[in-house]
Batch of 2 targets.
Target 1
Amino acid sequence: MNVDMETQLIEGERPVRNLEKTLTEREPATDQLADRQSALKELADQKFALDQHAIVAITDVQGTITYVNDKFCAISQYSREQLIGQNHRILNSGHHPQEFFQQMYHTIANGKVWHGEIKNRAKDGSIYWVDTTIVPSLTAEGKPRQYVAIRADITERKRAESALKESLATSDRALKELADQKFALDQHAIVAVTDVQGTITYVNDKFCAISQYPKEDLIGQNHRILNSGHHPQEFFQQMYHTIANGKVWHGEIKNRAKDGSIYWVDTTIVPALSTEGKPRQYVAIRADITERKRAEEALHETQERFRLLLDGVKDYAIYMLDPEGHVISWNEGAARLKGYRNEEILGKHFSCFYVPEDREADKPARQLRESLANGRFEEQAQRVRKDGSAFWANVVITPMYDDHGNHRGFSKVARDITQTRADEREIRKLNDELERRVEERTAQLETANKELTDHKFALDQHAIVAMTDVQGTITYVNDKFCSVSRYSREELIGQNHRIMNSGHHPREFFQEMYETIGDGEVWQGEMKNRAKDGSFYWLDTTIVPFAGSEGKPRQYATIRADITKRKQAEERVQQRTVELETANKELEAFSYSVSHDLRAPLRHISGFSKLLVEEFGSALDPAAQHYLERIQSGTQKMGLLVDELLNLARVGRHVLHPQRAGLNSIVAEVIAILQPDNEGRQVQWMIAELPEVDCDPVLVKQIFQNLLANALKFTRPRAQSVIEVSCQKKEEDGQPVFMVRDNGIGFNMKYVDKLFGVFQRLHRPEDFEGTGIGLVTVQRIVHKHGGRVWAEGEVDKGAAFYFTLGAGKQAGSKSNAAIAGGQS
Amino acid sequence: MNVGELDILLVEDNQDDMDLALHALRRGNLANNIFVVRDGEEALDFLFCRGAYAHRSFALPPKLVLLDLKLPKVDGMVVLKQTKSDTRTKTIPIVIMTSSKEERDLAESYKLGVNSYIQKPVDFDQFRDTVKSVGLYWLVTNQAPVTDGSKQLAGATHDSR
């Protein structure tokens, strides 16, 4: 319906012009015409009104402007001529996205009314906003024919809106800032809000922390809850008076926390005023100044105490002089000693205390100068009282300076020593005697002291030294203590010794320690500490308590040695031992199963091949029998190998049982065992006198068994075997070196390294049987004893084996001597 | 088997070892009354006359037990221990025949009261000689504590305490 009206309205333009013309020409009118005229009139009125209030334009379907009214021209600043025929885009401000216009064109192209707010650009580039309604006029087919746009200038409204938005943003920012400030304030200050009656309505966390009240206990309470009773009533009256008048109050208040402890706060109370200018509530911002106040109070107390002390001193005249020597202050002792009352003496020159001769000799002024020059003047001399009587006085004059080093006068301390002087003469006699003795004693002490200093120096060089009081607070540390603990001296002094606790030792460890030293006894032990950087160190620690007068420990001296390296080594050794034990156990299990499981099948091979020969031998041809014999001897060799390997392993596991043993009897025993092997052979044994040595005889027997069996074996080609066993003392340490030598086939020294290797053999098995384990076993036994074994040989000239038993050092270099093994 | 005339109880799990041992005993004419059990549990059942051997009597123990150490189910050492710690069986001669010559096995066996400990030689001739001489010694040379009869057994058992 709206569309219809708009369409008529716009279309009515031309008719209106005609109508005016018609009216002017006063052509006769029919009723119908009159009706039409009246309707047109109404339309014209409406258009007029519209033109007065609205911005009107018409465009064709391509957007080309075909009509604009005056207000359009006015707002766009273009003349009508400039606009007609132009595309409406001429006014595009670029503010709206493309979609905005697409949506608009889509709406109106479909014959629908579009309504929206558009930001346009005027001819001079200025921006204006229009509330826009675009009405399509439709053809008979319902297609848009043209578009009528009616606009209202909303630039002002838009501006107001954006201003509002801006101001909202500003106030948001301000609120945010305020919140930030409140946060910052809460972090740094103690904040509370009370109403005008003093009832607390808000407190921040810091307020709760310092007052020790939870928030719930404070809100609704009168602020008096914190009153410490320190300040007089007037103090608070003055405060309430100030803030009740809307003024800021600032001052320092002493409050009482929940637990009764006292704290000081530097306080600013700001009244928040109502619109009538009356305080509505009070915001109190405080800073904790307890520490400062405490220091001030302590200072004040000291000063007060000092004043009382001065007045309390009756036997000493203590008074102050100005730089020229006039009395400016005076204690009670001075009044008593000199006989002047306060008001009589103040302002007088101090020379009145001197005897006339001294005064005439200008002593007073001289003494002041001397005091000034030397920082102090002292004498024992006669002085006079007010009544003229003289007395002996000990006088000390000290110059006084202010903070800036300006000379402010002198302090003078005088004491009546009349009686003392009489006594002194007697005392001096005694003193002289005493002094002589003291001198003697001092000389002794000095020597002792010097020694002590040397000792301390030596101690400081080598030991880690600290002193603590009975509570464990460190009072002294030396440089080594600092370097080991990585703390500086300043960090340590005054600290409890616990800061070095590593947590390694159980509580009982320290209890036992404190009990020992608490009883005045020396404690000794090894302690693991933690250094500043978190690393650990071990200390061999000795704590020596020093007894005080009642026999109770007064302080503790702690002397330590850094044993971290040793401890670490011990830990490593422990770890290695565990590893070794594990390996040993595994080896044991292994050799146990070898001894069982490896031997059994050998036995079976041997047994059944033997049975084959015995029971079916006649049916087998000689080659088959020969093969069976080879199987037999193979199993025998394998059995021997297994046994010897097991023996080698057993030697390795064997725990030494050293005892004094005569080697000659061991050698004789071995020769007897070997006897069956040399039946029918010519063997010349040359056994020298051998010493008794500390060794494990069971193992040493195995050494000789192997070496002598070897000697027998390798001299087999000789018509007569010569086997020599002897012993020589080594030159450097007199340690016995044992030798087993033969005249056998010998060996080439270039293979000497192979002699002591497992399964290493220098001969073909057809020539000399053997497993290659014997010499390895010898070497292992020798090493177990801490000795060494080596060999010398030459092809066809025989071989010699040497060994020591005991912690033998490197043997002297021998030509052709090969050293096997080394330290095990 | 004639329950009255048992000479040797052979405790051996390994078929090869069993065959070789039986062969050696047969060669020594000692194989007439041999009974073989294949694990420690069976050996204990046999010696203590229980389970499958409940029909046996403590009055007629074997004259010799040849005992291997590594056995299934119950270890040879346990068989030795239980047999030697029970008054009904402790007088039965037990000879351990094993591959092992571990010192700890030796020491432990003698501590438990073994009568003899023999390591089986790898060489079959030696093995055969050993088995034969052990058999001859315990069955012929040695005087057993009980020749026959339960009365004498009871007396001997008490005397030996």
Target 2
Amino acid sequence: MRFLPLIFKNALRNRRRSFLTISSLALSICLLGVLTALYAALFHSSPPPGQELRLVTRHKVSITNVMPTWYKEKIRAVPGVKEVIIWQWFGGWYKTEERDRQYFFPRFAAESDRLFAVYPEWEIPEDQKKAFQADQTGCIVGADLAKAQGFKIGDKINIKGSFFPINLELTVRGIYHSPQDSDSLWFQFKYLERGFESLGWPNFAGTFTMLADSPESIPGIIRAIDTQFANSEAPTRTETEYAFGLSFLAFLGNVKMILLSICGAVTFTILLVAANTMAMSVRERVREVGVLKTLGFTQRKILLILLGESMAISLIGAGIGLVFAQGLCTILRQAPPVVQQIKTLTIEPAVLAILIAISLILGLASCIVPAWNASRTSILDALGFTD
Amino acid sequence: MKIPLSYNLRNLAVRRTTTIMTAFGIGLTVAVLAASMSLTAGLREAFRSTGHPLQLILMRKGSGAELSSQVSRESFNEAIKYRPGIARLPNGEPAASPELVNTVNLPSTESPDGMNLTLRGILPVGITMREESKIKLGRWFEFGKREIVVGADIAARYPDAGLGRKVKLGRGDWLVVGVYESAYPARNSELVGDANQLLAEFDRGPYFSSVLLRAQDEVAMQALVNSLNTDQRLQLDILTEKEYYERQSSSGNLIQYVGTFVAIIMAVGSVFAAMNTMYAAVARRSKEIGTLRVLGFSRRSILASFFIESMILALFGGIAGLLLVLPLNGLTTGIGADATFAEIAFRLRLTPGVALASMGFALVVGAIGGLLPAFGAARKQILTALRDI
């Protein structure tokens, strides 16, 4: 502890070098922080309250493959399932969306009678709820979406069909608030059914969304549904709503492996940068080590002072890097969400602990060899050392 | 007068550890960039080299991809098949192939949970029009039977879909009777069977997904597009086969953005590291710089010499980075195409373009990192430099 001022003085001796090293470390740790936070958010986070009980069943192949609507009754009969509704993704184009991404927002058709039972956390005035349920061409929009596109109650929204060749003429009947997703539009599944009828298509469901009665029954429900339909014409895949969002990411390739290998490359680069600097600064100081030894510093103390300096530098770098990483996470949270998990992206305490540990280990590892060699140099050799 | 290059090389060799570490740091940065670029280059190549220049893909208006498109047998027979301008096959039939496209899920060596693959149903004319697809193992499927052939990439990546295996498509099992290899890379990620059998298997009624047409020549192609576009009965989107696949190469964009972003941040870090190394080199060689000046080398030569040294360092780094990525070249991997929800296999390609861009990137890092220290070296006064320890 006594040597702390000495360590800091040493670190500040070559200011330019310390500044460059710390900046380089800070950048790398910042990058590592964001990537680790992303990894943690995608693969190790748990769903927010209100969502953990919701499950989604889709066709095993993809949401563009459909299931017969009678699956709903079978699913309802599975023990532990409290509510189930048909839920259908509807692509389409709003205004000039075909060319202009600013008009993009997700649109879903769902069975309005039980919709609010499956999404109990939504806040929507009772009269708007009733108005929506009573109007077959009605729709409700999330508060964020309403703000972004300027939708008000009573507005007409026309959606041109793409994947489904059906044009929708909707009227906004309500605006809902949800802690997770307030940027979607929901309209009545009945309206879509009518469209299918006029096309002569059979009735089908893209996904079923259900509410379980307790977290304990979730694994059982998943098993029961998927085994029941495993050998039918449309095998299913059931997962939590939280995990369902991630399945879209799987199409981007092996995200897990890509993230991990980039993290590895970044960490290794930091190690090289840190080791290089420390080796340089120790080598410059071999003579000084001789002086310190003459003054009576033991080999161990010298080693500790050198290691302390390297660790101090990497800790400072890590601290600055993590502040920037948190800032970047905040910016990423505002970006259009590819998956819901990004919306709560932050440096969790566990990630923070891991990164600080990494930076300490790096500080230690980068310095141990040159410091060990320097501290073992005999006084005579050290004093006579010319680089 | 110029300071000889060997001076720089020797200096780098003397400070071996530092040189290697700095170069390797730059190398890793270059590797991240080069890897993400080879990935997108490979993907783009797979899609770009797919498609016959005279072939058109017809889909329902607004559907965007074959998967979500529908074209009825009736409109094919009555309004498409015998249109003037369509090339004739050796047997006298028009080169017009109605095709069914669906996705199926198969477990692979990489993802045991199963990945989506494109299943295509064709008629005999479809096989005739696929001259570039050659059977490698087994034979083509027989019409009227529950048989399929698979592309070479599928056979290699999905052990369950190898020759002689039974694959579950729709309701029942289908026998894999052949493996084909196509000169069009995207086609090697497909399973192909009898369209009529598959229409029944998937309850599609009389609806194919798309129609593949071959025009007689370029002039006929334009006329064909015009006449199809103006036919009010049809309501079709018409793309050349080339355009259709070219569009799908955007699937790799996200990976490219992330890779570039990470590489740029890492590059800033590497610039700092290179600066550090070069500043140390300048500081340590203060006396030498003084001596060089006494010998008559100008400030300009000193500046150039240190700058060049930093560039050499970066050059080593760039080479190291490319060597690191080299084993990835030719590696087969799969990516989900946005338009089809199905996987397409492609090979990573460390193309000369990618290598050049990565090298350029490394040199930029070296240049930025070396500039300030080199100025520092050139500005030194002879006397103070000589007196430095």
